[in-house]
Amino acid sequence: MFSSRGSWKRVLVAAGAAVAVAAPLSLSAGTAHAVTGMTRTTTLKVLASGLNNPRGITVLPDGTILVAESGAGDPNCAAGQTCAGLTGSVYAVHGGFQGRVVTGLASTATGPATPGASVSAAGPNAVVPDPKGGYDVLSEFGGTDDSRAALGPNGATLGTLLRTCDHTVLADPVDYETKVNPDGEDVHSNPWGLLPSGPDFLITEAGANDLLRAHPDGSITTDYVFPHNTAATGSQQAVPTGIVRAADGTIYISDMSATTPGAARIWQIKPGQAPQVFLTGFSNLVSLALDHSGNLFALSFTAQLGAPPLPGSLSKINLATKQVTQIPTGILLQQPTGLGIGPDNEVYVTNNSNGTSGQLVRVLY
Fold first, then answer.
1. Which residue, 203, 292, 241, 332, is CA-closest to 55?
2. Is-above-0.85 flag for pTM?
3. Which are the contacts of 272, defined by CB distance < 8 A and separation ≥ 6?
4. Is 231 helix (H, G, I), strand (E, B) or coil?
5. Residue of 18, 26, 58, 4 lying closest to 342 (CA atoms)
6. Mean pLDDT of 235-259
């Protein structure tokens, strides 16, 4: 699912394998489940189920919810082999409609030991509408030009920003990392977060540990290389993930900072200023979202990776005071990955997102 360099990648891959044998929380679409905290009860309402490795969420002004699905790789892939298929998609929920509005996108996964078993895949990770029609889809990958080429033609758009209406590659972070390697460390790309920025796109690179700017001509430049987190146990790579922009133009970016509980950070980039750490003390942050009342929401994939990982968590942050409120979700969030806020401050999460039994849920608290 996630991938950065060296031991960090191996730990996350091992965690994903462990979860495959764990029993995830299973709720049917339209049902709800609750956890009572000190002062409130949190309820999950399942809006969609059976999603294939659901990742990032984008909520449009009219309330339409878009979910990037990383797919299930190649369904004919032999056990233990890694193959690319065209099972990635974009899922939409609007009013009484829900279903896939784009299919046939690149996806890669390792064939399961048992035929028909759920698989963890890499593929579409973030989606936004394109002014020319269709959608712009950023795919995760975790590798280099050579490792992508080895997957064959089905994997050609992995790790790229793709416009779906005409299948045009708008930017290729994998190729950029392979050729430029801005941080000078091992060559490894895993594009994760996507934010339109005027005519450009900002992309967080979880594998390369930098913030990229994709330009309309297809070129890419580096906006910022995130330094190692030396406050964590040892010196850990940043692994930037979520990215959002507030109404005043300030950008917030989350980083995972390895598996050390409490090591994850939130960065702040004010217009015209260099990035700086805004808040620390989180764990395995994977996504951010802003509501319309001056609050930032931060989603943790898990409190701590292990076998299996502990449940995820959701925090609400007052941007004016930096006060952090933990929303009591108990064991409800199991490997949550995407986070979105609706026009009336509805909170949406992709849950059970490591496999093919994923959910889109609304968090009521």
1. 241
2. yes
3. none
4. coil
5. 58
6. 94
